[in-house]
Protein 1
Amino acid sequence: MFISKDLTAASSIPLVLSILKLGDNYGYAIIKIVREYSGDEIQWTEGMLYPVLHKLEEQGMIRSYWQESDTGRKRKYYALSKEGEKGLDDMRLQWDKVHTTLNGLWKNLFSEEGVCLI
């Protein structure tokens, strides 16, 4: 399934914040988690993720720190801040409202088989 760039971009911040709510993580792992949770339907690149991480860090929603990995290589990890937790809670309410609204409309527009009723 193709997911538009607009929808991917709109969902990037709540996805990143949700992943970091699970625990601190680094860029490549975040990309893998999105791919896993979406069943390989959402495939981010580093060029898409890192501007989002930098924006969130500038806004104080996340913080970063360097830590040595098991291989001895240093990695930049990202952690959710208190401001980020609040932002995630707000975004969840907004996404729930959009989801509920669309489901209500689509229930009236389409049959269970996906055929347009109007």
Protein 2
Amino acid sequence: MSIASTKRMNLLASSLAAILFVTSSSTAQVPITDIAISPKGESYVFVSQKGLSVVEAKASSSNQSVFTIVKHAKNKELPTSNLHALSFSPDGKRLLVCGGRPSESAFLGVYSWPRLVPLETLTIAGDSLLTAIWVSDSQIATGGLDTNVRILDANSLTVTHVLGGHSNGITSMALIKPSRLLISAGLDNSLRIWSLDDYSLVRSLNQHIHPVTALATFIPEQGLPIVASASDDRTIRFWQPTIGRMVRFIKLPAKPQSINWVGENILAAACDNGQLYIIDTLKVETVGSRQLKTGWCYDTERGPAKYQLVITGANGVIESVSVPTILSESP
């Protein structure tokens, strides 16, 4: 989807308006640190200091692109109040959650979906886990403040490989499935590229000058995979990780906290000033922006509708925005 064609999408631009979801009175004003959309798109699952929560979403009868909250389905207390990341397994049958207390403990849990029955949980002394992703239905990768990437068996949570290379905590990870590459990034200002064939360090990417806060990958139909990295240096850098080349970068007015590809050559960046910026990644320029109601942004996810983003932040709300609407409102 090009920027020009996006601006001509009058139907979506006029019908998919920004919608604010107040999660509930029990979680209001409690920061929502991460959110995941269920495989069928009917539920929003999120974590905060109140634990894990699920709300059911329903498409509008007049417009199937607009989703509104139907009811607060359930809350689930977890072994730690500091929860940082969650994601669904590739088969959509399990939910992965991680967190922990800095310098005290690490927590990792795998739960059935949708019943949220604990299948395996692990709490150990150490340092907090900040990120965890599914490598496959049978493997999980984690990263945290202890600087190591760990590969675990998803069924037993047994550690099978420890990948050491970062000199400070790991904040984010991403996967390039076609090339079997795992990318980690962190507080040491760097990205590390790992081979999942032999679990070796392939290369290090060190152009950021402040901690890296988020990663997002894009696999084009033609050409090399692209990974975007967001940093406290206020830049987003675009890399071809299979060859280790940085192809371009953009500097934003604020620190990007979460980034997400919306379509080919379009990236959304939610920042610590509560602004969402839409970026043309070929021209490396901002082509639209919106002030969000989430406050300091923690996470962005692709929503159930096309070109929809679901965003969480410090104000304890979930906000849904339409990228075509933002672009149509921009000069």
Protein 3
Amino acid sequence: MSAFHDDKLWQEAYVATLDALEATGTLTGNDVVDQVRKHVMMVLTVTAQAANDRDRKIRDAKLRDAGHIIAALRSLLSVLWGQEVFSDDVFEKLDGAYEALAMKLPR
């Protein structure tokens, strides 16, 4: 396995990604849903790239980028919740997972 599979941040992003994809799996024809899917994949990808980088400064820069993507993602999630696409429980689970991940990233 690649080094990023063992990375705790990547693992957390991976679980959150699976949860978000499951929550949006049956939703079609909604631009915000499409943006959520795009953003969760970007967070996962950038986290994997950071985990594979041996240069700490570059790794931290990539993780800061992931933090910016998470901020946008959480805004998109709140829009779906506001439109009542997500129940309170689904929103809280997804938003909470990405908030927890963001708190572990460098600022």
Protein 4
Amino acid sequence: MKKITPKVSYDSDADILTLTGVAGGRIDHASKLGNFVVHFTKDNRPLLIEVLEASKIFSNSPKPVRKMAGLAFA
């Protein structure tokens, strides 16, 4: 099984945390559940996960979690 290393990025202007590289392939469709948007391949493997309003979601998280995610808010 091929090891996939996800990448985490944060866009402070849009306040979106993005997790990419969850699986290989092309985006076919997406599903939104609350503040989460998951983009899937045709065979329903997740490729990209977006956390909308990330600063609100992670504001009560421990500082190491916020730092690991690259979140610039306190």
